Amino acid sequence: MIMGIDPGKSGAVAVIADEVHYYAFSKYTEHDLCDIMRDWNAKGISMCYLEKVHSMPAFVGGKKRQGIASTFTFGQNFGWYIGVLDALKIPYSFVTPQKWQAFMQCRSGGDKNVTKRRAQQLYPSLKITHAIADALLIATYGFHQHNPFLT
């Protein structure tokens, strides 16, 4: 079983096991997410892939990208997930957006519709939202890393 986490404010946790499971952050409290991750870990998570994020400049090419408050929140979320993974002793590895998107053939350039479209192609029976798309793709990337015969 592989877990993937998109640590953004509107991100999610996804697990690939016998079926695909996902949990959009907006629908759960931090306490709920800890319980969910603990329960999955008890079932035998092999590895969690956590998107390695960094702050973005406030302005790029004259366009506003990320403000100070949102950068702080983003970093706080990222650190919170590392703390939960460490506390639960879930093994994890960082993966950059560039790496998992290249592998999953969905280089987005910041356009969330690209990753949403790719996740929908891979999981046509699921209702893919922006909130869960990246986590699903990160988990799928991780699944392929642990099962290289599938690539």
- CATH fold description: Nucleotidyltransferase, domain 5
Q: What general form does the structure show?
A: globular
Radius of gyration: 15 Å
Instruction: Please indicate the percent range of residues in DSSP E strands (runs of 2 or more).
Output: 15-25%
Structural class: alpha/beta
What is the average of the pLDDT values?
88
The number of helical segments is 5
Query: Any guess at the CATH architecture?
Result: 2-Layer Sandwich
Largest sheet: 5 strands, mixed
Instruction: Assign the CATH superfamily.
Output: Ribonuclease H-like superfamily/Ribonuclease H
Sequence of strands across the biggest β-sheet:
3-2-1-4-7
Order of helical and strand elements = EEEHEEEHEHHH
Note the gap between the termini. 17 Å
CATH class: Alpha Beta
Quick structural overview:
The protein contains five helices and seven strands, in the order βββαβββαβααα. The protein has helices at residues 30-43, 68-88, 97-103, 112-122, 130-146, and strands at residues 2-6, 12-16, 20-24, 47-51, 59-60, 63-64, 92-95.
